[in-house]
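User: Please run a holo structure prediction.
Assistant: Happy to. Please share the sequence and the ligand.
User: Here you go; the ligand is iron/sulfur cluster.
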Amino acid sequence: MDLTLQQLQDIAAKIGLSQVGVSGPERVAGLFDLLEKRRAEGRISPFEEKEPLQRIHPGTIFEGCSSVIALAVPFRPKPHRVPLTGTPLPKGLVAACARGLDYHLLAKEKAEALISAIAKKTGSGNRFLIHCDQGPLVERALAVKAGLGIHGNNCTLINPEYGSYTALALILTGVDIEPGRPLKGGCSNCRKCLEQCPTGALLQPGVLDYRRCLSYLTQASGEFPHQFRPLLGRRIYGCDSCQECCPHNKEAAYSLFPEASLEFFPGEPDLKALLEMTRKEYDLTIGLTSAGWRGKTTLQRNTVIAAGNTKNPDMVKLLLRLLENDRRPVIRGHAAWALGQIGGTKSVRGLQKALPGDPEETVRVEARIALEKLTS
Ligand code: SF4
Ligand code: SF4
């Protein structure tokens, strides 16, 4: 053995990582059948690898793998206390994971620092591979196996120190490190997250239907499903409802990394400012967060829905401008829907104009549905 677990944790502590665990290179037991079932039921999201073996066996993506180091990078920001719907303020809501500097960058930076420290201790010539949300492996299952936390019924990893407000990164390596042990404990009889989920996406404890999950839907591009638009409330990116209610998160520590608290994407951004944002402004703010990869159009689409959900007449002027002038059909179509939520004479006139006038069939359909709602 090249390193004991304690030696690794001491090395990690010196670079500010208090939560580090290790699992062996063998496949995660008991997961193959679960993933096959999910595949058969169509519950593998487009963002995930479809092939179960690739997902559970580190050796398939890293030859000579002896150990898998799992590290938790916390990102919990200060809490917000504004209700999700019915507020007159035209403000949005952004998930905790998407406010500070992109946690992928932060986690990779910490993983690289840890690799340098391990290489220094064990000698050069060792190989390492960082896996952070951009590979096939089920990071959460490997992190649980490494002793970094427990599986929550809300489908997150719950770490004893940081709760579920943690980004994960794995380091696959040829260095032989003493493995950790899975932690004891779990959710007991709690079902709060299932009860609080606005869309019923948590079908059973630990079973998520991504097609109903607002976190997934805010990231998927194109048309936002009609039935979930009112349930989106003011959310612009992600959804924290099944985490905010979790008792394990009550005492969860705030992130010590200053990069996590920079708020490039404010927790409650001004909806009008988001809708009028230039590309350059986007790149210098949201573009630096974990929401940035999704692109300005999808986030503005979500913002348009949130504007409709505020029912705030102050948003009508801007929504009419988008409906009439925005070059992106997805924005015009969702603006028509939002005007249908807010209503009023000006909304009706704008929709009547768009109904025959818009060059896109999808936008005309949205305008027709919105008009029917307002005039029936
Ligand atoms: S992220 Fe939101 S929508 Fe998705 S499971 Fe959790 S509470 Fe439900
Ligand atoms: S809310 Fe309750 S059931 Fe859900 S993850 Fe937290 S402890 Fe588990």
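The mean pLDDT is 92.
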